[in-house]
Design brief:
6 helices; Rossmann fold; alpha/beta; 6 strands; six-stranded parallel sheet
Length: about 230
């Protein structure tokens, strides 16, 4: 009898698993919808496709990504962001550029790759500051204020990424606009936009619930000081 009761209890637990999984799925979908709505609203009328409409800011924040894909090809996300950032500087819409990305290994250095590409595109090296601790978009945006002292920013990335960064900025008291780099119309670009839905849900959790801070801060750097 006892073994039969144990069997029934076990069977009942297994029957509840699909219900629990369904509830988790619904909660996840609701979270994704809320994340998208919150970020779309925060970024409304703050993203710009042309230089004519974007206001002047002291600094542009270029969000990092890998320069070269695992297959050895150049990353179009990287290439288009560099083109947009160079155009932003050369048009006089920003005075300095902060290139913020991941440098967690000696052989992986997104900020230096961006700096070198911008110099090749005609931006003076002394106008480019490298932020080596931009491990996530949140880190890059908050550090632009905490480390580089900027309360106004022009963020440079693809539109969907700019929108998320603007949400983070506004929630941290930073007046941010976005200059949209050309989007990537490939399968990789499509996958990135799909992943963005989950990234937005995570961002809203980080900002509204978890109060997530950058992994590292450090000494302050004033724009205009010597570039290292």
């Amino acid at each position: 009898m006892n073994s039969f009761r144990a069997y029934l209890a076990s069977f009942a637990r297994y029957r509840r698993l699909p219900v629990f999984a369904a509830l988790l799925s619904v909660a996840g979908l609701i979270g994704i919808v809320i994340g998208n709505l919150a970020i779309d609203q925060a970024a409304a009328e703050r993203v710009h496709d042309t230089l004519d409409t974007i206001p002047h800011r002291a600094a542009g924040l270029v969000l990092g990504c890998v320069k070269t894909l695992p297959n050895g090809r150049g990353n179009l996300f990287f290439h288009y962001r560099i083109n947009a950032a160079a155009a932003l500087y050369q048009s006089g819409k920003v005075d300095y550029l902060i290139v913020s990305g991941d440098n967690h290994r000696d052989d992986y250095d997104e900020p230096t790759d961006m700096r070198d590409a911008l110099v090749e595109a005609g931006v003076p090296a002394e106008r480019i500051y490298r932020d080596y601790a931009g491990f996530r978009t949140l880190d890059s945006v908050v550090r632009a204020h905490e480390i580089f002292g900027q309360r106004e920013l022009t963020i440079v990335s693809q539109r969907f990424h700019n929108e998320r960064a603007i949400f983070i900025a506004r929630e941290h008291g930073i007046d941010a606009v976005g200059f949209n780099a050309r989007d990537v119309e490939t399968l990789g670009g499509f996958r990135s936009r799909l992943r963005e839905h989950l990234a937005r849900f995570k961002t809203v959790l980080d900002v509204w619930v978890l109060d997530t801070e950058p992994r590292f801060l450090g000494r302050e750097v004033a724009l205009g000081d010597p570039v290292t």
